[in-house]
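Extended Data, panel c. Modelled sequence:
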Amino acid sequence: MNRRSLLASFAVAALLAATPIVLAAESKPFDQKAFEAAQSAGKPILLDVNAPWCPVCKAQAPILAKLKAEPRFKDMVSFKIDFDSQKDLLRTFNVQKQSTLIVFKGKQEAGRSTGDTNPASIEALLGKAI
């Protein structure tokens, strides 16, 4: 095996190893039935209210992806709510601004923040749900 094929093998292995982490970190669009099922199962839940034009939301995204990939948060169910198009959900969850993060521990809201880009405080917020 020459050096080039060995390096290519390592690159493919690294990509395959990273794939489950990337998939685990993805948030799904909000779905009422899936949300209620996660609540009934007592799962930790994150609602991520964002807008594609929001710089704070963009800053939160890699922090959330990194945290959700950690074993501690492996069971967290994440839903995205679009600030611009899902006004009914904003009213339901009493959200006033984009970049709002809401965590639930089962059926109970455990905490929320708006405009936070501090990795430590976002981690603490997510921790309230587990």
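The beta strands are 28-29, 44-50, 77-82, 100-105, 108-114. This feature is highlighted in the accompanying rendering.
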